[in-house]
Structures are given as C-alpha cells and as structure tokens.
Amino acid sequence: MSLDILIPVYNGKKHLLRLLNALKENPPEMEYRIYLFDNNSSDGGARLVEGMYPDVVVIYSQRNLGYGAALNRLIEVSNGEYLCTMNTDIYFDTDVFTPLLNKMEEDKRILGIAPVLMMPGKGIVSTAGDMFPNLWTFLIEFLPIAEMVNRVLPGFRLWSSLKPYSFYKKGGYVNHIEGSFVLYRRKAFKKYGLFDESFFLYFEDMDLQIRFPKKSMYILPVVAYHVWGGSMRTKSSELVKIRHRSLLGYFSKHRTPFETLFIKIFLKTWGITW
C-alpha cells in the first residue's frame, strides 16, 4: 500500500511550509511521497521547499494552469495506489492519513475519503453532501436566506446539498466532498477520468465526483485544519469571477439549458460579470 500526496501550489509560502512541517511531524505509517506542482508562483516557496525537503518532488509550470490541471499533472507523474489531493492551507497535529487509509482498505466501496475539516476559532468548515449543485442550491447560496436562518437557528444548515454539522460527529457515506483534502483510490481516476481542466478553480471536485457511483465518498471523524482562503493569493474580485465562470461551466455540463440561462440572467441582473 503506497500513498502519494499531491499539492498544487500558487504562492502561500507560509501555509505550504506549515503543511510540510505537519507532514514531517505526523507522517503516515505507510510508504508515501509528496509531489508539488508550482503554478508559476512569485513568492519562491517551491524553491525553498527544494532546499528544505529534498525528497519532495517539485514540478514547475511557466504559467498558472489552474487547480485541476495541476492535480492532473501530478496524478500522471506519481504512481501511488492512493492519491491525496490537498490544498496548501491544510494542517494537522496527528497522523490523519493512517485511519483514512485503513478505512479505505476495510471498505472497498469507498473511492474517496476525507477527514472533518475545522477552522481554528470557527469550528467545522467541512462541506459534504448528497445533492449536487442545482438551481435551488444556487439561490440559497447566492441570496442571504441561509445566513438569516442561521441567525435564528445557529448551527443549522439550510443548504439542502450539505450535511448538517451533527453529521460530522459520526461521519458516513456521501455523494460529494469539497476538494481541499480528499484521499482517492488511483483506480477511480483510471475508471472515471481525471479532473476537467476547463474548471480553472472551483467545481472541479463536484465535476469529478458526480461521475462516481452514488455514496462512494466518505467522511471519517478524524480532524484536520483548514485556513479558508489561505491558499489563495488572487484578488477577491477576480476569484468571484472565476467562481461564477466555473459555476456556469458546471451547470452547462451537468444541468439543463434553462437553469444555465436562468443563472446568466440572474447574475447580469445583479450586475455580476464573469
């Protein structure tokens, strides 16, 4: 049993070094190797890693290919039986990999598994569920409905696509897991394909997992930490545009023409560009 840890990098040097230190201090029990794909960063983080961690494989790109494309390059050059895709702004204070891998060895139905993600000072930030994005989930997310309900019922998630916070105490099977930290079987990519590189950032995880059999993803109640946005070094206005482009790409690929057109008109009405 071998594990490859695949990390796309776009600046965020401080977070990257913390992640690698967490891996050094809390390594998996099995054989593993770390691969970085540097998406034309400007902060010198990948070069620093080469000097500090000579066993880490670093691949450089002359331009920013996007998150999914970076992962695809790493999947192609790695050879582990298990592949962990991970943001740079993840860290942990225990060996989270071994229990995840043990669960996958025990349950061959699982194609992808993730820990519960916590944000220091904020609590659970994991997003996993059964319903894939549709017009209803778009409206709930875009309009402040969920936020208003949460003020009345703290801890309640109105988003019908997401599991409630209570779910993460025990974990279980789901259809989709947000892609900041997911451990996959390599055979899942061989059978269902790689990440769609037309998704520069956002929704590449949903697009992949919607191809999997139902209930083949799993949340295990072991904890890792996610500093939301820590791996981003792009202006927030540009990230919003990228997210909307990916949203429309997802709807064009997986939903009806009516839903896609509705969202385009809705965004234009609100003066939002993409």
From TrEMBL:
Residue spans crossing the bilayer: none
Q: From what superkingdom does this record's organism come?
A: Bacteria
Q: Start and end of every Glycosyltransferase 2-like domain?
A: 5-192
Which InterPro entries does this UniProt record tie to the protein? Glyco_trans_2-like, Nucleotide-diphossugar_trans
Record-linked Pfam families: Glycos_transf_2 (PF00535)
Known PANTHER family for this protein? Answer: GLYCOSYL TRANSFERASE, RHAMNOSYLTRANSFERASE WBBL
What is the protein's given name? Glycosyltransferase
Which organism's genome codes for this protein? candidate division WOR-3 bacterium
